[in-house]
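Archive entry. Fields below.
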Amino acid sequence: MSVRFHTTARRRILAVITAAATTSLVLAGCSTGNSGSPGTGSDKNPSGTIRVLYNWSGAEGDAFQAAVDGFTAKYPDVKVKLDNVPFAETQSTLTKQFAAGNPPDVSAALPGIVSALSAQGLLMNLDSMWNAWQDSGEYNDSLRAIAAGSDGHTDAVYFKGNVNGLIWYRTSKVTDAGLKVPPGSWDEFLAMLDAAKATGHAPFSVGAKDVWVPTQWVDPIILNVAGGKKFGQLQRGEIGWNDPAIVKSFTVLNDLITKYWPSNALDTGFADETCGWVTGDHFFANNGAFVNGIVASCDSSLKPGDDYTFFTMPSFSGSGTPGVAVSGDLFLGAKSSKNPVATKAFLKYLGSVEGQSIWAKRGGYVAPNMKVPSSVYPTVNDQRAAELWPKDASTVAGYDLDDWIGGEIQSKYRNALDDLIRSHDVDAFIATMTTVDTRSGK
Amino acid sequence: MTSTVESSRSGDRRAARAHRSHRAAVTPYLFIGPLVLVFAVFYLWPAIATIASSFFRWGILNPWQTQSPADWQFVGISNYGDTLASGDFWNATLNSAIWLVVFPVLVLASSLPLAILIWSTPRGASFFRSVFIVPMTISLAAAGVIWTFIYNPDPNKGLLNAALHLFGLDNASFTLGPLEIHAGHWLSNPGVLHLGFADIRLVNLFIIIPAVWAFAGFGVITFSAGLTSVPDELLDAARVDGAGRIQLIRHVVMPSLRPSVIVVTVISVIFALRTFDIVFVTTGGGPAQDSEVLAMLLWNQVFQFLNSPQGGLSAAIAVLMSVFMIVIAMPYLRATLKGNK
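PREDICTED_STRUCTURE:
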């Protein structure tokens, strides 16, 4: 009996070992492709599978798919599995997956989350990739700074750029109302808005139900009223929200909200904002260059440039050109990727002229890569927006304030903006933000 | 010899009896064992880990782990102290309290009369029951999305604003004592009830309504089941004694439905306290923090505030919520256990 037991036990142990060995072999056979330590810059031909998390839908989703198709045409041995998440849930999805030890190889992200993930050492170091791009004049220092992590390295690729603070309008509607565009000064700007308001409709269509929309108003106004230097200092936490120049900026914003926004701004989402000036009663919307690609969802018969276009806000002080408010989407690579070679190849492709030209050709997009020629943009609106992209060191530019800060401050800043829209109380807004953002110690 | 054999047989019988008795004592544990194991692994351990982690500082990207004591940042009960001292917590508690009061009341007030009406309908009871149960099959997130269309501020799209437009009440604002109303702004700023010590934001009410719409089916089912247990003899006797329809319901039907009322109330209260999804899809807790409930605050602290790791704070909120839920679920548990006895 004892002998039989031992024999059975041995057989079981052997079976377990055989099964384990077989499983290991099978798993090895099913590996995700070439591996190697991240950041080694392996020159192996990329192969295997990578998982990519992104957050666009509709026309933007199709454009990103086209960029992915461009990559897989170039690297046919790489299979790209796409995970789509709603924009607002990108951060929580990414956080959960990183926390669970199962992050995507590549993911869309904003600077705030790049900073948080890099602080934990979870992201690939892309310094060598950026060094090469800068050597070839494709990016400058300020664009690289947007993709920097908090670990002293550049941990993301800047894939999709956007120029904010563009005042969009329907040419026929503005002409019919006798409004003079573009206004040459801040006073002319306000006079034009007053004239629009006199028609009985709020001049601006505003989709503040989507919390990022009002933040798009703040950046160009701070850059215009307080200037690029103060914008940068506020962003980095070097000055407080109670700095007089910042208070003045929010006072100007509050005046615009009070006089020229519709009363239902907080009930209206971004999609309704766009259709509000394209087909609705409003004359203008203040939003990014990407809007050019969305107008067709309200009225596909309109021709960009002829039927609708934009102007930039005139200088508040009357001297000089206001700084350019920019934003956009980054892509990061997980340090724990099982397929770092293909991951890096994909990131490199997204940052390249080739990768970015694919979406640029479709419109509603500004390529961060400075070597993407303006001739690739399909419409005059896209070309004009791309010309605003800060390509030289003399251009004052500010990256989306709250996306850059991220975390708790971003969340509470958005709440405080909602309150400002409702209450028109600048002092309360400044007091809240001074309590929330204590980085400057003021 | 015989006595030795008998004694041996008797010994065997005793041993067999003892063996059977031992097996009888052990067998139930063998049956219940797997369930206990599942409970311990998937319920008890996470609960213990949550309670333990509420005494440490951690974030979702560097979670508190039992096997890494070197990385622990023990903060004692300060997560509880910070939570109870936080304005965000009390704002979320107030909003959750609105849910706790209004949601069960509306569920009872809608489902109980519906169930009684269906019960007293001579024909088509199962059809009407199905009609009211159908919304329950829709996820709360989907219910929230459906109602955001109803609440759309554009009268050409939103049903309610179309009705307001019809009566010329677009954007009408008025004040009734402490009550401030802004018609048409259903999910942004529909109004405030100023109580002096607190402001009750009415946006919560307009999120609760779709939740009630989706949840009332549960009440209808539960009350319908309860109504089948009302003895016909009792109803006939009451009718013979001259009881009218209202008296019949008040004095015969309602007392029979008391256990169902407890079940619906307690389940509604638990549901109200842990509500998240419908708030997330309709307002995201906004505008500002007007509709942020405790579960949403907890979620924000874990997944949004990454650069200020507050996992311990959210664990403290989870513990406080659980304690509260256990306390309010007691009547239901007692009623259930009593029923089992």
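CURATOR_NOTE: Residues 2-53 of chain B form the longest helix (52 residues).
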